[in-house]
Amino acid sequence: MKRHTTYAVTPMMTEYESILKGFLPVLRSRIAAELNVNYGLRQTEIAKLLEITQAEVSKYLNGEQPKNDGFTILLSNARVKKIAKLILEHNDYEAQRIACRLCPKGSVSNCAIMIK
Fold first, then answer.
1. What tens digit of pLDDT does each residue of 51-110 get?
2. Closest CA to 79 of 52, 102, 47
3. What is the pTM of this model?
4. How many CA atoms lie within 13 Å of 90's alpha carbon, on the beta-carbon side?
């Protein structure tokens, strides 16, 4: 099942800001949910793996999602599951490659935005 997710882009945001404030939180929230539900990880473990705070993980898992209006992003459950599995296996390079293909900016070699 494909899930369409949108995120906000305001006229004052640069492309990088829109990805940092929109796309990444949406992707991280889906990954956090996958790690919690299907792998049984606690919030602190997820926070450490994703290199975010436990408070951010708590917000994601308690349904406090980033505000989304704007672009539509296709995040299939299969891709989210694959990224979560790769992160658990500490295969950050391959997890990042998949995330870059999902990103609206695309796979750009000089992009410095990382999922973790």
1. 999 999 999 999 876 655 454 566 788 999 999 999 999 999 999 888 888 877 766 656
2. 102
3. 0.78
4. 1
3-state secondary structure of 100: helix
Place of tokens 């602190």: 44
Enumerate helices (H) and strands (E) in the chain, giving the number of each. Answer: 6, 2
Looking at beta carbons, which pairs linking 74-79 to residues 24 or more positions away fall under 8 Å? 74/2, 74/3, 74/4, 74/102, 75/2, 75/3, 75/5, 75/26, 75/27, 75/30, 75/102, 76/1, 76/2, 76/3, 77/1, 77/2, 77/3
Q: How far apart are CA 32 and CA 50, in angstroms?
A: 8
pLDDT of residue 87: 95
Summarised one tens digit per residue, pLDDT across range 11-21 is 556 767 777 77
Q: Do the beta carbons of residue 95 and residue 115 sit within 8 Å?
A: yes
Q: How many CA atoms lie within 13 A of 38 on its CB side?
A: 15
